[in-house]
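Reopening: structure tokens for the pyridoxal-5'-phosphate complex, inputs below.
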Amino acid sequence: MALRYAKRFDGVTGSAIRDIFKLLKNPEIISFAGGNPANSALEADVISQLAQEVLAQNGVQLLQYGQTEGYAPLRESAAEFFRHNGVEVRPDELLPVTGSQQALDLICKALLDPGDAMLVESPTFLGALQTFKLYQADLHPVETDEDGVIPESLEEQIRAHHPKLVYLIPTFQNPTGRTLSLERRKAVAKLLERYEDVVIIEDDPYRDLRYAGQALPAIKAFDTTGRVLYCNSFSKIISPGLRVAAVACTEPTLLRKLVIGKQSTDVHSPNLNQAIVDAYLRKGILMDHIEKISKSYGQQMGKMQQMLATFPESVRYTKPDGGIFLWVELPESVNATTLLSAATEMGVAYIPGTHFYCEPDTHHNTMRLNFSNASLDNIEKGMNKLKALFEKNGL
Ligand SMILES: Cc1ncc(COP(=O)(O)O)c(C=O)c1O
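Re-run output (same inputs, fresh job):
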């Protein structure tokens, strides 16, 4: 039977990460491919205790249907959490969502018609690219350097394409680990004052995973227009399986559209999970937990960089102050996409960098490495395998 699939799926493939996970059934393979927190960072005992407490206090309400606008106590505690990033929002300006991936989906649902122009950093998070493609966005890349997106290039692309949306990950970016400088954060927020129908999505799930240097205020902290939508997630700092994140939107009509869009997506995010995260925040234990995991992640990142320093000089890599990824650029002659199967045969995996670009089939000499979900020992072993692979292929 020839099923007539929606056009929105044209050219959209499954997530490269999820497909690579299928390759990784063999537990012997050391994976630098995912974007998972360390298993040791997931505190089943703490979550179990909080779940029991919130169910004992408020079980019937939590097990009943809830409000699309979110679990009211979480809106308060998450607004407080956002404040420490310089994002001054009221609880009623904040929408809890089922992972920040859902925020991206709802923002596109509210704003994009097929063919609408949208700008993304080059490279950018592949899960976001998948969402934008499903909404049939006309995607255009914006140039980046060591300090993140280049405001002049951003303005040039805004003038050239008149985009409805701009998607930025300013802190410890996925996939590069790079951070947008303070001056550029201000410049990007200022741009919105000149382009009055452009909306910026500021996706900031890594900002608290900092191992060196000083925290920077969010772009949203400099927004005078209400057109920066600030997303933060508890996936990387508490648990991705709980699927709890929130989006701050200070433009009431747009927020209402997000809520209406969410009604038809999942009615509301699970009450129990929202209440668990709320209890976690209210107990004041998040900062200690972040400090603990940051200590190990910092060591893991250091180990991976130490190993990369032993690679040939032509292998270039980022040196971030936090996050969970390093970005590697190989000489043009090396194809990281085709090398992946040889790598998995040798027992190591990564994500070929091509998947992070909106222009298909480009940048095959790049790759993303994740260090948060690999032990120091496995980082050493896996990186030695990668080095051997590169040497075998003429590096
Ligand atoms: C930049 C970025 N945004 C959003 C997400 C999705 O996170 P969540 O688990 O909150 O949906 C990720 C996950 O890797 C990410 O890296």
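The pocket of pyridoxal-5'-phosphate is lined by residues 35, 99-101, 125, 127, 169, 174, 203, 205, 233, 235, 240, 245 (CB under 6 Å). The first helix runs from residue 16 to 23. Marking as resolved unless the reporter disagrees.
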